[in-house]
Amino acid sequence: MADVAENIWNITDLWDWLNEFLNSTGMPPTEKDLSPCSTETETLNKYVVVAIYALVFLLSLLGNSLVMLVILYNRATCSVTDVYLLNLAMADLFFALTLPFWAISRTNGWIFGTPLCKVVSLLKEVNFYSGILLLGSISVDRYLAIVHATRTLIQKRHLVKFICLGIWGLSLILSLPFFLFRKTYHPPSSSFEVCYEDIGNNNTTKWRLVLRILPQTCGFILPLLVMLFCYGFTLRTLLEAHMRQKHKAMRVIFAVVLVFLFCWLPYNLVLFTDTLMRTGVIEETCARRKDIGRALDATEILGFLHSCLNPLIYAFIGQNFRNGFLKILATHGLVSKDFLARHHITSYTSSSVTVSANL
């Protein structure tokens, strides 16, 4: 009788493994998951995904390096917004550095071992959270400068440095669970190893829900609400002021925020839907589980794409950024001074996107 019970337990364990590793949603199985749903281990063509990752990596490496170069080259006159954008470029750059690892794992599984699994997962999450927290800080800075005409924070750049350090620290805290619990697994259903959370056998579902909901709330929803509030009032003030130059100066900031939302909001909405399904708020079916798995794969790629888009925004919308980059080229003899004169580039006005507080 004990042997029969042990065999039944082993079969149940096997279903747990199969559901946990084959389902692309990544949440642990519930009691209902023990029914055999047909699973798909690959929802998107892995070679297409690898090609996208490689392109994003190269564009992000080049673009964000140029953004950092332009800002650091003019660091003596850089503004508060420049300090935030410098940190944002660093976050995007470090985030992009994790893409080669995820690309290789798409084709060969996780071959880098547990230490790199922890480090790469930590880098990915830290730079995601720091990105949206920095955008939230920029929105507060612009709100104070334009709506309340507050100069205190704008004139004290050393305070902004401490704010940025606090943002990196908070992002690290929000990402620590990924560093602590992630390790290399070898699922019995696959010939490849994976980089995945190991929370233990007790209360797995409850803890994984906590690890998903808490960072998503503190690291995405709350900063998003802050941005919507600040930019809503900022936009209203700009429209009431009827000052076209100020509208132009804010275009880059608005574009950066909108692109961030376009890239990351779909992924977080799908993740939230998956959480509702796993907690039983909405009915879970095999078809719905597959649909969410496909949606998570597709929207995650869209999120990864974000790391290379900000430099394109600065290049095509930010006139001062282009001027600053051309002045660097002229300094090193790559662009003639006549070219700068023909395009009326006589000075670099400290920021690629700065908006004056003098409304």
From TrEMBL:
Subcellular location: Cell membrane
Membrane topology type: Multi-pass membrane protein
Gene3D superfamilies found in the cross-reference section: Rhodopsin 7-helix transmembrane proteins (1.20.1070.10)
Keyword list, A-Z: Cell membrane, Chemotaxis, Disulfide bond, G-protein coupled receptor, Glycoprotein, Membrane, Receptor, Transducer, Transmembrane, Transmembrane helix
Protein's UniProt keywords contain Lipoprotein: no
GO molecular function terms listed in the Swiss-Prot or TrEMBL record: C-C chemokine binding; C-C chemokine receptor activity; C-X-C chemokine receptor activity; interleukin-8 binding
A Pfam family recorded for this sequence: 7tm_1
PROSITE patterns documented for this protein: G_PROTEIN_RECEP_F1_1, G_PROTEIN_RECEP_F1_2
GO biological process: calcium-mediated signaling; immune response; neutrophil chemotaxis; positive regulation of cytosolic calcium ion concentration
Domain G-protein coupled receptors family 1 profile: 63-314
InterPro entries associated with the record: CCR1-9-like (IPR050119), Chemokine_CXCR1 (IPR001355), Chemokine_CXCR_1/2 (IPR000174), GPCR_Rhodpsn (IPR000276), GPCR_Rhodpsn_7TM (IPR017452)
Transmembrane segment boundaries: 50-72, 84-104, 128-147, 159-181, 213-231, 252-272
Domain of life per record: Eukaryota
GO cellular component: external side of plasma membrane
Task of the protein: Receptor to interleukin-8, which is a powerful neutrophils chemotactic factor. Binding of IL-8 to the receptor causes activation of neutrophils. This response is mediated via a G-protein that activates a phosphatidylinositol-calcium second messenger system.
Assembly, per entry: Interacts with IL8. Interacts with GNAI2.
Protein family: Belongs to the G-protein coupled receptor 1 family.
Protein name listed in UniProt: C-X-C chemokine receptor type 1
Gene designation per UniProt: CXCR1
